[in-house]
Write a structure and sequence with these properties.
The chain has 474 residues and is of the alpha+beta class. 27% of the residues lie in helices and 26% in strands.
Length: 474
């Protein structure tokens, strides 16, 4: 089956805080690329997205595949693959995103429960995942994978909600695999398993990017990330009770998969091209029994690229930096900025800029970073004069201010990420790794030695104010 080309106006429902409203905003500024030819969800969609990412004229566009082979659902891609796109979706700038999210963390808006919702316009209680255009992205992936699913579960002991993004392999028409990162949803699952019960889960696709970003915040356990998402959007996230399970789903989502993570069943899952640009191996992992699929009548399917694409790691970096900055400032108030790098998979590397007042503070910052986000592996600490978003500046600090024998601090056998290829996995989802703090700050007392050689600032300013006269013949 194929789809017809549908104008965006028929997608938009007038709301300003949902998935299709964001697409409207991108189209209004000429940054929505419509692909009208038929495209296969098996590898071809991924290939087009990768080419769009790399093309100078198309890298800042969101992609709408209007004609997806075998499905009535259009696919949206490349929505989250740059910091600029996520900032635009949140109504801010790239450099101000961290402050915007930090402010939202201090002023959460609780969710609003509603009785009726666009995501319930079509309800399928005899579910068949084959109706969804779930792509296969990397060459040796174990099959089609849901990659943008916002997983909503509740703590079986307290009832507090958690939001996170997990990967889901399609096993059967009503069965998904699930790899749960060693974070809060896994704790929910383990608590349910200990009680001998399945864990209800709502998997929402096609939500406002603020929900996806908030799901990546490393907030304290039993803190609802959707309250932060509400603050980012300026209004409460609307939630609706699910049809078949004891859970709630975003009312304005495009698609919701209702299911239960079974406590007594596993299945071989993987491989899957992951954030480390390598394949996560096959493992025996839990499964999600799908109880229902609900969606809008004209639903859009959202896909997030993984592996060699920067999309899933960009989403992770933007979401994790604010909570890391907040945690570090609680320990060392003179921390100025943090950057979680794309090259480090948004999990392994953090760069921190600080005003150092005492020797040993960079090490304290490193330990605080590991405590706040325990999947980090390398923390690089630089002075506040270094622009941590400029790779050349960071390399300059490492080259001129770091003595390997003195300033590299290795901590052995710390909890790590099992998807890190150098980690030692000792059980499903459990691994240890050696970690490192690198102090690339100027030694106290050596400031004169490290004075930058520059043209006098007042001369640079004077010339810059009248620079055009140097470019004329008069």
């Amino acid at each position: 089956m194929s789809t017809k080309s549908v104008p965006m106006r028929s997608f938009w429902d007038g709301s300003s805080n949902n998935f299709r409203a964001i697409l409207e905003h991108f189209e209004n500024v000429g940054r929505l690329a419509r692909i009208k030819v038929e495209v296969d969800p098996i590898f071809e969609i991924a290939a087009v997205c990768r080419h769009m990412e790399q093309a100078p004229d198309w890298g800042q566009h969101v992609v709408l595949f209007e004609n997806v082979k075998g499905s009535e659902f259009p696919i949206v891609g490349n929505l989250c693959d740059t910091r600029d796109k996520l900032a635009f979706a949140m109504g801010t700038s790239t450099r101000e995103s961290v402050n915007r999210i930090l402010d939202a963390m201090t002023r959460p808006i609780p969710v609003q429960l509603v009785d009726e919702a666009p995501c319930h316009e079509v309800v399928i209680t005899e579910p068949d995942l084959g109706v969804l255009p779930i792509p296969t992205m990397s060459e040796f992936d174990g099959g089609p994978y849901i990659s943008a699913g916002l997983h909503l579960t509740s703590n079986p002991l307290t009832g507090v909600r958690n939001a996170g993004i997990q990967r889901n392999q399609v096993h059967d028409s009503d069965l998904l695999g699930i790899y749960m990162a060693p974070t809060h949803m896994l704790q929910h699952y383990l608590a349910a398993k200990e009680a001998g019960s399945p864990l209800p889960v709502a998997i929402a696709l096609g939500v406002h990017p603020s929900l996806l970003v908030s799901s990546q915040l490393r907030l304290p356990f039993d803190t609802d990330e959707l309250a932060v998402a509400g603050s980012l959007m300026g209004e409460a996230v609307r939630m609706v009770p699910c049809v078949t399970i004891d859970a709630e789903a975003p009312a304005d989502a495009e698609v919701v998969i209702e299911g239960e993570v079974l406590h007594d069943t596993t299945r071989l899952e993987g491989p899957f091209g992951e954030f480390a640009r390598l394949y996560g191996p096959e493992r025996e992992l839990p499964v999600v029994k799908v109880r229902a699929i609900t969606h809008r009548r004209d639903a859009l399917y959202h896909n997030v690229m993984s592996a060699s694409s920067p999309e899933n790691v960009t989403l992770g970096a933007v979401g994790r930096e604010p909570s890391l900055l907040s945690a570090l400032r609680s320990s060392v108030p003179t921390v100025r900025a943090v950057r979680i790098t794309i090259g480090g998979g948004a999990n392994f590397h953090a760069i921190v800029a600080m005003q150092k007042n005492f020797e040993g503070e960079p090490q304290k910052v490193g330990f605080a970073a590991f405590a706040a986000q325990d999947l980090l592996k390398h923390v690089y600490v630089v002075d506040e004069d270094i622009d941590i978003f400029d790779d050349e500046e960071v390399h300059y600090a490492l080259a001129t201010r770091m003595d390997p024998a003195r300033d590299m601090h290795v901590i052995e056998n710390v909890k790590g990420n099992p998807l890190d290829p150098v980690s030692v996995e000792y059980g499903p989802g459990r691994a240890v790794v050696n970690k490192m703090i690198m102090d690339a700050t100027v030694r106290i007392g050596s400031e004169v030695k490290y004075r930058r050689a520059e043209v006098p600032a007042e001369v640079m300013e004077r010339v810059g104010q009248d620079f055009d006269r140097y470019l004329t013949d008069e």
